[in-house]
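Researcher: I've been going back and forth with a colleague about how Sugar transporter SWEET1 might be arranged in three dimensions. Neither of us has a model we trust, so I'd like an independent prediction. The organism is Malurus elegans, in case that matters for your notes. Sequence below.
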Amino acid sequence: SDLRQILATKSVENIQFLPFLTTDANNLSWLGYGCLKGDGTLITVNAIGAALQTLYILVYLYYSPVKRPMLLQVLLLLAVVVTGCGYFAILVDKGTRLTHLGLFCSVFTITMYLSPLADLAKVIRSKSTRCLSFPLTVTTFVASSSWTLYGLQLHDPYITV
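Model: Here is an independent structure prediction for Sugar transporter SWEET1. You can compare it with whatever you and your colleague have in mind.
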């Protein structure tokens, strides 16, 4: 719905950038975890999610009148991803790599779910829920519940988080 609104209005007004960015970081992290674990479900879902989030970021940047702050955030995300890849590939031994990456992914997931709280300040200031997406809120709840159940089924504490 946010993407449709951006395309329809050709504006990013009332749409936060941070949730797109943290969700992309989350998808990229879980994609790495899925590849390391060899879990086709994690790989498929997060590859599609990362591609879509990257598309959303590009559309957001295109329609944003002020690009510099968003570009700096994207560069910071890329630096974190590259640093994380280097850390897991070079510094973490193979025996503990999955555990460390799972913890890393869990932190990103928590960050992703906290990022919409940035909208809460705007809601309180404006006394309007116009900037909150009800469909996105419901979808996020359903998706997170599904991942929790999947993690419980696999006995994987990181996916469960």
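Researcher: What would you highlight for our discussion?
Model: I'd start with this: The mean pLDDT is 86. After that, consider the following. Residues 7 and 59 are 8 Å apart (CA to CA).
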